[in-house]
Amino acid sequence: MTAFSQTFRRQARRVAADLRHRSIIQTALGKYEQVRDKTKSSFQDWQSARQGASETKWEAINHLDRYLDEFTTKLAARGTKIHWASNGRQAREIILGIVREKKARSIVKSKAMTAEEIHLNEALEEAGLQVVESDLGEFIVQLRKEAPYHIVFPAMHLTRGEISEVFRRELGSEPTQNPEDLTMIARRVLRKKYITADVGLTGANFAIAETGMISITENEGNARLTAALPKTMITLVGIEKVLPRLEDLALFLPMLATAGTGQPLTCYNSLYGGPRQPGDTDGPDEYHVVLLDNHRTELLADAEQRDALHCIRCGACLNVCPIFRNVGGHTYGTTYSGPIGSVITPHLRGLQDWKHLSSASSLCGACTEACPVKIDLHHHLLHNRRNAATQRPSFLEKLLFRCYAAIVNRPHLYSAVKTIARFAQTLHPIVKSTRLDPAFGWTSTRELPPIAKVTFKEFWKRRQRR
Amino acid sequence: MTLFIPCFVDLMFPQAGISMVKILEKLGHKVDCPESIACCGQPAFNSGYWDEARTVAETVLDQLRSAEVVVIASGSCGAMLKVFYRELFTGTANETAAKELATKCYEFSDFLVTKLGVTDLGAKFPAKVTFHDGCHGLRELGNKRPARELLSHVRGLELVEMQDAEVCCGFGGTFATKFPMISTAMAEVKCASAFDTGAEYIVSNDSSCLMQIQGLLSRRHSNVKTIHLAEILSGE
Question: What is the per-residue pLDDT for A1?
């Protein structure tokens, strides 16, 4: 068992039994499905919309070379500087290079999971820069020195009281339980940061090939301020975020909002096509777009799981996942948590180190059902399990399943094992629910039904004889 | 017609299988139950050991090759035979056989309602119940309606839907023993949702889910009981 797997188990055991956590998450997500279903019903046909979105992403991902070329050519034509980063280290160096060249001291940042993925904040802070998250949820978890709990709702695990407490401690504000007051506290701090920041850093929701534009969707207006006020703007975007045409947004923006938060559309949807052009009233003097691979091309090479690159990071699979709801976002120990995280993390960070996430699933399929771009999420968990067992089978499991196959394929052996199990069962109470119990994984928390006095096969045999 | 009895129904829940035999024979079918089939191979398949799963599945394929129609006493094993065998045998000599088998497989409630058009079996069960949708039956096979259709015709039975009817009970095969803490938390959420309805019974068409739910109910000394759909339908 790897250290990552051990940490996951330890955390999962703690959080799954934490009833306060369970109740906070149930409250936070309780209304999500109702609101989302109501918004879904305003689509003429949600299933056709999913099919359409899936096909568009399929087209984009299966012709990624062409669309990336079109995207960067058009974006560069308006004066944007394009950078390609094969991995996290390169992306960090590129961004640090730009920041140093600009002699920047402070950076304001809007929400970007790709930045979390490459640990950008840590790198910038180590280089002596001040980085401020401008998304309210991200701002809160940054003050708490925590990773985002959820890819869309970074601070969903916190109560108003806990948010008030971190504001009091870090910002010296008066305690309050009022959401508006809490927002105003953050707003007063953040507004100053936008004005003084030398660089604005954003992520991207979509990269439009046809027009060479970045699409950013948000609810707070913080990404607009991050993009508009500082003199230099940098966007970090994963190469899989490409959409072929501008009109694709007509489907993807409402889908992202509906699946993500249950909103028909998010409050602000902006397109960025380059630095300030002659005649423009605002916008940055310089615009840099950093395209990040970081093992995405390896996932692209895997025909079976390539559709995982369709992901638009809406978080719907996390919201409906009973595992996520019970173990919580931080337990995963990954940038991307929930079902999509369990599928892609083994590709991004190593199969053997992260295969336990694919095993920690009941394969219920709620994620696949919720995914707006039809990623075959729960089947990919099965594929990861198969790949892990093929690449490095566990000696014990292999032996166990060989024995299992031999037994169930031979009626006499199956019957003999049944007899042995019946006998073992009479001795079971001696060790039941203790560490010596071979069925401890089950009996630690649940009762195990006994083998029936007359099994079905025995019933059937007797009946045939009659 | 051939009845497929999964290992856990054979060993721990024979009454569900016996009830199915009773119902199918009452409807005039000649039921056959191959002795050499003990398991569908899902434990090995779900753990990633597809070679071992395939050796088990090959036996099932062989035994069911000549079957006219196969009725499966579990949504989960139903999904294995109908959906996952196709993937398991892709690119092998058995690819066509797996595809053929898929076309003649039905989960028990789906067989009664969709294939036979039977919804009223004349059963009586005077109790308040709530229904749990097994994930494989619901999402892999798309069966939501048949079980409810059948329950709606049972005399004296009152069905109260729980809020989380479609949320997983936490069984998930080997997952339940590999990650007992998560699996149990899921069962707790499921049971809490069922308790809210005030039902006396939690009904399902999958014994594996019922084993998980009953396992927790028994440990917590709850008065709520679990029962398989077929046992309700065979009651007179």
Answer: 77
Looking at the structure, tell me whether residues B219 and B144 fall in a common domain: yes
Task: Identify the residue whose tokens are 């016996």.
Answer: B18
Of the three residues B114, B139, B168, the one that is the final residue of a domain is B114
Residues of chain B found within 8 Å of residue A321, distances taken between Cβ atoms: none
Interface test with B, best of A37, A317, A358, A408 (most B CBs within 10 A): A408
Return d(Cα A171, Cα A84) in angstroms, integer: 38
Closest-CA residue of A relative to B47 is A385
Residues of B in contact with A461 (CB under 8 A): 35
> What confidence category does residue A30 fall into, taking pLDDT thresholds of 50, 70 and 90?
confident
Looking at the complex, report in whole angstroms how far the Cα of residue A47 sits from the nearest Cα belonging to chain B: 14
Whether residue B102 is found in the same domain as residue B186: no
Residue with tokens 């923006």: A253
Residue A111 and residue A221 in one domain:
yes
Q: SS3 for A298-361, per residue?
A: HHHHCCCCHHHHHCCCCCHHHHHCHHHHHHCHHHHCCCCCHHHHHHHHHHHHCHHHHHHHHHCC
Claim to verify: residue A409 and residue A371 sit in the same structural domain: no
Q: Are strands B124-131 and B105-107 parallel, antiparallel or unpaired?
A: unpaired
First to last CA, chain A: 53
Residue B164 CA to residue B157 CA, distance in Å, equals: 20
Smallest Cβ–Cβ distance between A366 and the set B39, B44, B168 belongs to B168
Provide the CA B67 distance to its chain's centre, in angstroms: 20
Distance from A347 to chain B by nearest Cα, in Å?
17
Confidence of residue A282 (pLDDT cuts 50, 70, 90): confident
**What residues of chain B lie within 8 A of the CB of A388, using their CB?**
48
Cβ-defined contact of B44 to A401 (cutoff 8 Å): yes
Give the 3-state secondary structure of A140-209.
HHHHCCCCCCCCCCCCCCCCHHHHHHHHHHHHCCCCCCCHHHHHHHHHHHHHHHHHHCCEEEECCCEEEC
CA A451 to chain centroid, in Å, comes to 42
A-to-B residue pairs, Cβ atoms closer than 8 angstroms: 188
pLDDT higher than threshold 80 for residue B236 = no
All residues of chain A having their beta carbon less than 8 Å from the beta carbon of residue B212 are 446
Which of B10, B12, B166 is closest, CB to CB, to A457?
Answer: B10
Q: What's the number of domains chain A is made of?
A: 3
- Phi/psi for B73 (5° steps) reads -85, 30
Contact check, Cβ <8 Å, A368/B13: no
| Percentage above 90 pLDDT, chain B | 99
Helix (H) / strand (E) element for B2: namely strand B2-4
**Based on the domain organization, do A63 and A126 belong to the same domain?**
yes
Residue A133 has φ and ψ, to the nearest 5°, of -80, 130
Contact A258, A252 (CB under 8 A): no
- Nearest Cβ partner for A322 among B39, B186, B212: B186
Taking alpha carbons only, the member of B26, B47, B27 closest to residue B178 is B47
Neighbours of A391 (CB within 10 A): 11
Tokens representing B171 are 């069984």
Q: How far is A281 from chain B (nearest CA, A)?
A: 52
Amino acid identity for residue A137 in this structure: G
Owning domain of residue A433: 397-465
Query: Both tokens of residue A42?
Result: 């305003």
Asked whether the ipTM of the predicted complex exceeds the cut of 0.95, the reply is yes
A9 to B179: CB separation less than 8 angstroms, yes or no: yes
